[in-house]
Write a structure and sequence with these properties.
transmembrane, mainly alpha, membrane, transmembrane helix, DUF2238 domain-containing protein, about 200 residues, globular, 4 strands
């Protein structure tokens, strides 16, 4: 990262590094292999973002959004509410069919927020090279956000396969994760299409 880019992004970089360090220590002492794995993935992800930012030229909106998403994810697996992790916390009983089929949980809000941010990132990267219509651009960005959502589920699946116990959940959890990934991606796509004057740059 050049000095100019460091000057532009040092605040989210320091903020992100700080909470990753704190949560890393916490998960190591707790012996939580699942979230140690997630910390490692997050570190690699942010290294990729920072290593390519002079080419992608992501906005502060995207960088701060990604940083906040990471914080929510780390907190979701460690902060205890009512005797369970924050990810399992039930915010509103919009739909309750028993077991994992419950809407609305903190986990689902984080998924929607995270993949809204992912769609914004894909939009900012794609629009520098895209010459088609705005509608097609935001559609492609939304598909990119959904693709990243699928990769996220693969990361969670890897945790289930290679670790003795996780808090990932089963089929309904995965399905609802994908639904809320789509909710976030579609919301951001609509915002980008109907609000072209939003200053994301």
């Amino acid at each position: 990262m050049t000095k100019k880019l460091w000057y532009q992004f040092w605040r989210p970089l320091v903020f992100t590094s700080g909470y990753l360090l704190v949560f890393s220590v916490y998960y190591i002492f707790k012996g939580d292999a699942e979230f140690i794995w997630y910390v490692a993935v997050t570190v690699l992800f942010f290294a990729l973002i920072l290593g390519t930012i002079k080419y992608t030229r992501l906005s502060h909106w995207s960088i701060w959004g990604l940083s906040l998403w990471g914080l929510l994810h780390m907190a979701g697996g460690s902060v205890l509410v009512a005797g369970d992790v924050l990810y399992a916390y039930r915010l509103l009983p919009l739909v309750d069919r028993g077991g994992e089929f419950f809407i609305l949980k903190f986990d689902q809000v984080v998924h929607a927020f995270g993949f809204a941010v992912a769609t914004l990132v894909m939009y900012e990267i794609t629009k520098r090279y895209f010459t088609g219509s705005r509608g097609l651009l935001v559609f492609i960005a939304a598909l990119g956000g959904l693709g990243l959502g699928a990769i996220n589920e693969l990361v969670e699946f890897a945790a289930v396969v290679f670790m003795p116990s996780t808090g990932v959940g089963g089929y309904f959890n995965t399905g609802l994760d994908l639904v809320f990934n789509a909710v976030g991606a579609i919301f951001m796509a609509v915002m980008l299409y109907w609000k072209p004057r939003l200053k994301f740059k």
